[in-house]
Amino acid sequence: MKVSRRGFLKTVSFSALVIGLAPRVAFAVPNSLRSMRTGLQPGEKTRLVIETSARPSYTLSYGDKQLIVNLSNTNGKTDVSAKLANGTLIKRVTQIQDGSVLKVVATLSSAIDAIDKKQIMLLEPNGDNDYRLVIDFVAGTGKGITQGATAKSATSQSAKETKTNTQPTNNKHIIVIDPGHGGKDPGCMGKGGTKEKNVVLSVAKKLKSSLDTAGYKTYLTRSTDEFLKLADRAEFAEKKRADLFISLHANANPSRNIKGFSVYTLSEKASDEEAQKLAESENAADKIDVSGFEQFSKDIRVALSSLQQHAVAELSEEYANICAKSLNRASVEQQKGPSVRHAPFAVLRSTVPGALIELGHLSNKNEENLLKSDSHQNKLVAAIVKSINSYDFDV
Which residue spans of the chain are classified as CATH 3.40.630.40? Predict the structure, then answer.
């Protein structure tokens, strides 16, 4: 969930009402509520996020200045209180258990119109979260909505459909592409002498060209063989008001048999030991006769609450999963293990959603040859472009 830069989220307690709990059915394990929170999005959009233990099946209905999310076969929890952000249309959120249906009732400060399914997103679980139902809306007239009216059924399948083949609109989405390393920092090097900094710059230029043709507005953090501090790369994306930040890298491993791509997002805790070591290696680039990295990291931590960082991470996780699936569909070999991993990469510390893509392993002889070939680079670019086309920028 991306949160407004104008303010911080804070927790506000409220009373939860739970009535009429239904007995569990032996052959159907009920879903259960995990958490609820709100946020403010660009364009004065209010966001409601409902986290559940399993994929939710839901419908929306409307009352007098109310949005009601009906979750079928779901149990509420009296100890779950919504975290409410300042400046949204939501005044409070309560739970009502109606048999096997949990009604999450958001009381609003003004009327709203029926919410289009394009403003609804269902996020898959990641390391710290279960399924999240994300609903965005703005103030409206309320005309055409009668009290208790039920919106068109929105099942998990319809929610998934809103995530496919999103094409750029006339309002061009801004993509910042970051070719890692550069200048005095060559990155890793293959046994055949291939330098990471050269591979990723070549892929980045091809990616920019393809995205420009597709209608996006794109920028490169570097277009020549120059060294940039990690702080400058993240700051560049923010200054350009980027909608998405993509950092390109190539990997190396002591075992030359290891190969394949992997996609990473920012997390304070690495998903595994290898991810931690990789982050330490990438972050070490800023320690080559430069200063300011420590100060930048501290400033970011002060400027962003932990919840804001978590919010940006959710959008980053959504793109990372789409990107990994796109590379898999293009038959690009994936490194063994999870397709999306998490690590504390300094270059991803930003208010801009983004991911770091390790395109492959230069330490593997066969993959080194692939990574420096035009045909394989074009294959990688095509898959990344498809992932960006499938990413919903409007949520």
Answer: 174-390
On whether the pTM is more than 0.70, the answer is no
Taking residues 328-339, what's their average pLDDT?
A: 91
Cβ-in-10-Å burial (0-12, 13-18, 19+) of 25 comes to exposed
Q: Where in the chain is the domain with CATH 2.60.40.3500?
A: 31-161
What strand order describes the sheet that includes 149-150? 90-98, 101-108, 66-71, 58-63, 149-150
- Record: fold of 174-390: Aminopeptidase (3.40.630)
Provide the H-helix boundaries in the chain: 156-161, 196-213, 230-239, 273-283, 293-303, 306-329, 365-371, 374-390
Encoded tokens for 325 = 């699936």
Fold for domain 31-161? Answer: Immunoglobulin-like (2.60.40)
